[in-house]
Amino acid sequence: MKKIINQLLPFIKKFKKHVFFNVLFNLLYALFSALAFVSLIPMLNVLFDKTTVVTEAPVWKGISDIKNYGEQLLNYKVSSYLQEGNAQMALVIVIALVIITFLLKNLFGYLSMQHLMYLKNGILNDLRKDMYQKIINLPLSFYSKRQKGDVMARILGDINEMQNSFFIALELVIREPATIIFSLIFMFTFSWKLTLFVLFFIPIAGFLISRIGKSLKSNSLKAQQESGKLISIVEESLTGLKIVKGYNAEHTFTSNFKNSADKILKLSNKIGLKNNLAGPVSEVLGIATIAVLLWYGGQLVLIENVIKGTDFLAFMGLAYAILTPAKAISKASYRVKNGIAAADRVFEILHEEDHLADVPNATVLDGFNKEVSVENISFKYDDDYVLKNFSLKVPKGKTVALVGQSGSGKSTIANLVTRFYDINQGSIKVDGVDIKQVTKKSLRHLMGLVTQDSILFNDTIKNNVLIGDQTATDDQIIDALKIANAWEFVSQLPNGIETNVGDAGNNFSGGQKQRLSIARAVLKNPPIMILDEATSALDTESERLVQVALENMMKNRTSIVIAHRLSTIQNADEIIVMQKGQIVEQGTHTELLNKNGMYKKLVEMQSFE
């Protein structure tokens, strides 16, 4: 718990004003909660004719005597009305005192909850924003070994669990303990013996409840992890729905979902059973305490006459005022366990180290003048090297194509040049500067990326293309669409560039989506273009249209083309043939054909996978 609070402190500091007022109003609420029961005593005294008669107005002796002065003043006023035979007016005064006390109690309670609401919602909002920022900034390698659903469960489910569970502690951390303390102070003024009786039972209740709740945190953590798996199954099912249906695999995915849901059910039931015990256990203990109080207190009133009957009734109210917050604390302790498990998962992401973070005082690239050079690099995703002692130079204004069979390391080059991953050995330089020494933002600002999977977001065509340049005008967007050979179909749409592309761009064909992706890269207008098998997933007609768009885009630009088909690379200034992470041939299209080597075989097979 302390560890989580320490991690939350930077978020809490931003809302210190609300913390201050929440604490202040909670203390006032606790004070008036105790006074509310004390204020019943004068009313009970009037009703049972037990009012202490005071005939002279009391004298103010300072703040230290405030309790005695207030009591004497009230008794003086009430006594004067009773002696005049005006019992109704005396009753009105003591009832007004009760009403005012309860009114102030609830007013301060309301104000404290308002400030807590601003504090809680503000912290959770900042947590969400920081977590999303972290998720966006973490390198791709972080996600290669994680389920997307688990990350989604943390930013959605776990933060909500913190709101529903952990932040309940904020409601109780001042209010309930302060209520108990103020109540005990007043109780001791009535009878220290009775008060000790009450205090004897509270540790017993705490011990029993802590025994029940020991395993709650571990069960909560398991349930939250399984929820992440469940979200992953749903996300993967929806993403690959065509494959699921096409292969009649509905039963397999349904079975996986049911198994995960059943695990969550069992864990939730375990958590729920123990949560549900908190209420009955504290209720029974509370009733037991009240029963003992009535028995022992009755003796003090009726036999020993050490406490007045009206005082004893107020004391019982104060005892109840202790048991209620104690019960609330015991119930909250269970839910806080759930919240701690959720908070651990949230902070695990927030504290995840970014291994690709910019170095201190990193260089900012403000342009591209000479070349991109890849010098003796070696790289592995896991255990086996994908690239070994690989070197490549891409002079400014030239187009270099990478070809080879699947697994030869072509796409890895694109991932490394854009610094989505860091190399294990060697260096990659832009204009002689190692990309590890420059800011990722300035490096990627020089590069445009068109991938095999044309990634579009569920928004308008305009906003998808604007990702390339947020400051572009509508005319510039249309020019980019024209260069990308996309204006021909966009212009025919009823809403033009304001047309929504649908989820993952599914309102359009593969070729249309790819041309919109190219338009996005055109609008960015970067000096270096990286095409990662940009036409491999297209039919012949779409490929022709996209190929024209690519040629338009690559004019006067430095390009690294990872090729799948001959048409994409035959005009390249240099073609690199790769096999198992190494260069086996390089040269122009004509030169390589004349060598009668691997390139010629690939051309004959038309298989640049």
TrEMBL record:
One of its GO terms (cellular component) is plasma membrane. It is a multi-pass membrane protein. It is found in: Cell membrane. Residues 73-338 form the ABC transmembrane type-1 domain. Pfam families: ABC_membrane, ABC_tran. GO terms for molecular function: ABC-type oligopeptide transporter activity; ATP binding; ATP hydrolysis activity. Keywords: ATP-binding, Membrane, Nucleotide-binding, Transmembrane, Transmembrane helix, Transport. Its main location: membrane. Residues 372-605 form the ABC transporter domain. It comes from the Bacteria. InterPro entries: AAA+_ATPase, ABC1_TM_dom, ABC1_TM_sf, ABC_transporter-like_ATP-bd, ABC_transporter-like_CS, P-loop_NTPase, Type_1_exporter. This is ATP-binding cassette, subfamily B, MsbA.
